[in-house]
Task: structure prediction
Amino acid sequence: METKKIKGTKPFFQKREILWYFVFSGFAVNYMIRINLNLAVVSMVAPKSKNKASITSECLSGNIPNNNSYINGYQENSTFTNRHVPLNKTLSELEITSIPDQYFDWNEKELGAILGSFFWLHWITQIPGGILAAKYGTKLIFGLSNFIGVFANFVIPWFAHKGALYLIFIRSIQGLCAGFCWPSMHHMVSKWIPPNERSKFITSYLGSSIGAALTYLLCGFIIERWGWEQVFYSCGVLGTIWFIAWWFSVYDSPAQHPSISQEEKDYISSSLGKTVSKVNIPTPWKSILTNIPLWATVVAQIGACWGFFTLMVNGPTYIKFIHGWDVRLTGLLCGMPHLFRVVFAYIFSLLGDYLLRTEKMKRSHVRKFATLWANGIQAVFMLGLAYSGCDKMTAVAMLTLAVTVNGAVSTGALAGLVDISPNHSAILLGISNTAVALVGFCTPAVIGYFTFQNQTAVQWQKVFWVCAGILLASCAFYTIFGNSTVASWNSPKENSDGPETEMMVTNEKNKKTNGKAEGNTIMYSNEEVY
Result:
């Protein structure tokens, strides 16, 4: 049989590389609408006195003048404009004014409910997101899901002025609609991306971190200049522009793309082999729900996201109210770690793909190695944050490092879902994200419990202890039970001829015999073959 060596002829811009940028920016938009309230809320809520759910920690008590007085629970040494007033100003330096309508008297539990409300219904649409993407395509589901969430930004200020319950309502609806995004994207990955390129491509999901970083940076500037309402209007405009570009530029598969080169199309098709079905196949729900490696991956995701969400959602509150940074610096200090997270994720993905390509590590070991960083090493830095006390610089350093190493998740458990079953990867991510969404509203509730009327470094230490414990436990569980073997139920039709799933894929190691290939088609059993 004639040797046929498959190569990916690379034009100046490959379509799957262009797709990376659209997915990257799409997840940036997804997180922009998810977290803009996290920073805006610190300028929406007015400071209160010690005897009325104080949000002034003991770390700042030395800067507060002894002659402070309070009117209706609000500090008299604040001007309550949209600009931050340093806590070390004296009464003679400040103009005492009335409290404008844009400030709200919400306590820590109400803040926890508001910040967590995005995730209250977010979990409901995770599994449907994967199912609908398989039926109607990721372009439609991911695009519309993001756009509806974007559109909600235009009405959030109105709902906020109506009251906390109204704001919780619109944020819940926003989270419900945005929930389709993440699981739908794994379906597109399974159609577009060769197996040994997945770690690198899935770094596009960490566009979420760039979205978080830029949102915090820009929101701090916007709030200081024009007020918190403009944050939501600006995000709405930017998200709308992204949706228009997405709709006219992205296609669900290489076969549908009108201008992809034949060489790239053939390369993708040959690399995927039979691991991806060209027709819809029944979902083996029983096999999925009883698959131990899947649940090990879900546990790893829960742990990584518990730590990540704690710092992403409540980081601005911790930095501003415990350490007293103004709103612009709060945005900078909360945004900077997410930039580092993306860089770390990209570098780690290159390492992961190199280890797979050169076969220096098995796929399962690469995923576990990445999870050790995303969960285990993050736990170490979380403990450092817990014991940073009132040391501002140590706290910022530990927070930054904790968020940064979490970027390894794109090479670890997140990529592992596609490894287990490329055909059903969108549904697997839907299951995983359902659990992660529950984490999204649990973390603000836990923080609200620990810090209610007691915003102190000691109480936040307890928050970080909980995070570290969950991170370490999830890392250990995945190390013991996780693996990236292709599940036997991935392609059930191919099981009819025997007990093993046969896959026709190209693998240089098995193709070579004395430096020459025996043929252009290789049959593999159900093992880590790609």
User: Anything to note?
Assistant: The beta strands are 70-71, 74-75, 503-504, 512-513, 516-517, 523-524. The chain has 20 helices and six strands.
